[in-house]
Structures are given as structure tokens and as C-alpha cells.
Write a structure and sequence with these properties.
The chain has 214 residues and is of the alpha+beta class. The protein is built from 8 helices and 6 strands.
């Protein structure tokens, strides 16, 4: 079990955001390379359907995932299925909150597992049976109104802290939007994505130099 006595990396992100899937994997890999099992990743809710006023378009999301797979992440997005794309992530985000109430390590594992289910297994994470299966697999209780309220509370806190989009990383007061990727969009060429290793590494190094919670 991961000991979380070091600094905490907070990430405001939505589950169906493909850029967050890449960013979380990248920050996890940086942490492991540094040998810092004491550092926790706390994935906070940034519910894009509330931010944007509508759910994500599955076709556009698949196009972005394909761009990421082709340009920077050939090992990801193996089985994203537009026919099983979730209609909402609010209950899944509530489940992640419930998992963090169980413990930091459980919350982190469930947050990653939800994205794995969507992007790598082609499962609909808005389907109650999918969420029930994941809750049982990780020993997480049933979500309640407190978990649903926490999703909105995270959104409110993210706005207060200046979150620009999904994913936005914080370590204490140090915040950076999508540090693992340099993304540009050309009206003709479309989406261009490259790894931004130096910016990600600089953020992680600053974070790892911070003391843990008192």
C-alpha cells in the first residue's frame, strides 16, 4: 500500500477527458521514476458537463483520443468505444470521491481505474452496473448525496483556484494547466500534440521538494 506522508499532487480533471488520461499517467510515471511512493495524487472533480453546460461529444472525444494515440501515446486509448461513451460522468466522479473517503490510496486507484475502464476497456462508466462492479472490486461503499455534493464543491473550489481546464495540476499554491502536453490547434491541420517533458519534470521536481502535510 502506498504511504502518503509526502506532498500531495492535486489534479482537477474529468474522467472522459483524454488529455487528463495522458497527464495522469505521465505524472504517475514521474513519481515512480523518482521513487517517491510517499507522494499522493488527489484527483479532484472538474465536471466538464457542468463547466460547458453539456456532455462531451463522443465523436470529437474519439478524434482527440486518436490524435493523442497517434502523436504521443501509442500505448493508450486501445478500446475507446463511441457506442459505449458515457452520457455523464457525475456518478463516476462521485464514486471517485467515495473512494477517497475510504482512503487516499483507494481513491487514487479508483480514479485511474475509471479511466482505464473507459479508454482501455471500452466500458460505459455512466452505466450503474459498471460503477457497481468497480465499487465492489475496490471495496468502496455506495455513493450518497455527500459524494455528489463533493463533485460540485470541487468544481466551485477549482474555479476559486483558477483552474483553466482538464487537467489542471496543483502542488500547494503551485498550479499548472496540462503540464505534460503542448497542444496547438490549426484550422487546417487540426490538433497537434507533443510531449512537454521539461515542463512536467520541472513541476514534479518543485512538488517533490515540498514537505509533506504537517
Amino acid at each position: 500500500m502506498r504511504m502518503t506522508t509526502g506532498p500531495v499532487i492535486e489534479v482537477f480533471a474529468d474522467i472522459w477527458c483524454p488529455f487528463a488520461h495522458v497527464g495522469l499517467r505521465a505524472i504517475d510515471a514521474q513519481r515512480d521514476r523518482a521513487g517517491r511512493s510517499d507522494v499522493a495524487i488527489r484527483v479532484r472533480a472538474w465536471p466538464l458537463e457542468l463547466v460547458n453546460g453539456s456532455p462531451l461529444d463522443p465523436v470529437v472525444t474519439k478524434e482527440h483520443a486518436d490524435d493523442l494515440r497517434r502523436q504521443v501515446a501509442p500505448d493508450l486509448f486501445a478500446h475507446l468505444d463511441v457506442d459505449r461513451f458515457p452520457t455523464s460522468t457525475l456518478e463516476a466522479l462521485a464514486l471517485a470521491n467515495r473512494a477517497y473517503r475510504t482512503g487516499p490510496s483507494v481513491g487514487e486507484r479508483v480514479s485511474f481505474a475509471l479511466r482505464e475502464a473507459l479508454f482501455e476497456e471500452g466500458r460505459d462508466i455512466s452505466d450503474p452496473s459498471t460503477l457497481e462492479h468497480l465499487a465492489h472490486a475496490f471495496g468502496v461503499g455506495t455513493t450518497d448525496e455527500a459524494d455528489r455534493a463533493a463533485v460540485v464543491a470541487d468544481w466551485d473550489e477549482g474555479r476559486r483556484r483558477g483552474v483553466l481546464g482538464s487537467p489542471h495540476f496543483f502542488c500547494g499554491d503551485d498550479g499548472v494547466f496540462c503540464p505534460s502536453l503542448d497542444i496547438t490547434k490549426d484550422p487546417v491541420e487540426g490538433l497537434s500534440v507533443v510531449r512537454d517533458v521539461s515542463r512536467l519534470t520541472a513541476f514534479v521536481e518543485r512538488c517533490l521538494a515540498r514537505p509533506g502535510p504537517a
